[in-house]
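User: tokens in, sequence out, please.
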């Protein structure tokens, strides 16, 4: 079953065709890897799907509804959540508060003054436990390491309770023990029947985790298939090696 599809997506920046006629399907209960050389358009696809960049043309089908644009503020209603390649956390708030503001879905400033229910705190603490951040919960986010910030951002995405999770390079710069935590998160989401899209450069992670891999090159889809099939494709190998 396809929960999320794109049809002939196009997006240019000046003269650069960042996404140049991309049609894709992302299946429910599967992890789909989105790979390709730097600048091939992966993040732009995610930006389009999450409403951070408007389309030039094409459509997106979500839950059988065909849309010619997605607005970022509609994401919760559409059941889509994402993380960013460049981490976005509220640095001057505690780790726990960074999670609690998601649960109330209010503006960060008003949410800070809101009283949270014990149920919210319990949910946030469960996520911190899962991500190995419990001991840091009262620390300001500014004091976290790069990897811990990435984990916090993933934690926030998990609290959104979406149908579709878009992860833009969640593994980049993580220590091995953190890699394991993120892999557990991905597997749990799949087991829960979620649609997971994962941008990742490490092919052993892609092979171990993905049901389907989409390879992009220069704004176009170069190959789609199982990891074993796609990653042994000559065209894919030469796109990566730049031959
Ligand atoms: N906001 C933007 N303004 C101008 N050019 C952009 C913007 N976002 C992406 N690009 C360009 O679009 C192309 C694809 O970028 P991106 O989607 O970030 O690739 P990837 O994530 O695969 O590395 C690149 O040439 C990049 O420089
Ligand atoms: Mg990118």
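Assistant: Sequence out:
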């Amino acid at each position: 079953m396809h929960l999320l599809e794109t049809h002939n997506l196009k997006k240019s920046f000046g003269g650069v065709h960042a996404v140049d006629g991309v049609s894709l399907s992302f299946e429910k209960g599967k992890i789909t890897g989105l790979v390709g050389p730097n600048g091939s358009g992966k993040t732009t696809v995610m930006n389009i799907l999450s409403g951070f960049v408007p389309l030039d043309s094409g459509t997106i089908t979500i839950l059988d509804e065909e849309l010619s644009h997605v607005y970022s503020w509609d994401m919760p209603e559409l059941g889509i959540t994402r993380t960013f390649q460049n981490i976005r956390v509220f640095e001057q708030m505690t780790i726990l508060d960074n999670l609690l503001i998601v649960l109330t879905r209010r503006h960060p400033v008003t949410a800070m003054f809101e009283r949270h229910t014990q149920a919210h705190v319990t949910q946030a603490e469960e996520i911190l436990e899962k991500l190995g951040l419990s001991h840091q919960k009262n620390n300001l986010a500014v004091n976290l390491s790069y990897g811990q910030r990435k984990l916090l951002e993933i934690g926030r995405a998990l609290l959104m309770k979406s149908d579709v999770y878009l992860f833009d390079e969640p593994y980049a710069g993580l220590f091995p023990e953190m890699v394991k935590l993120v892999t557990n998160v991905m597997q749990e989401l799949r087991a829960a029947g979620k649609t997971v899209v994962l941008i990742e450069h490490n092919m052993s992670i892609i092979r171990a985790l993905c049901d389907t891999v989409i390879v992009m090159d220069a704004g176009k889809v170069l190959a789609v298939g199982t990891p074993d099939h796609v990653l042994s494709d000559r065209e894919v190998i030469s796109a990566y090696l730049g031959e």
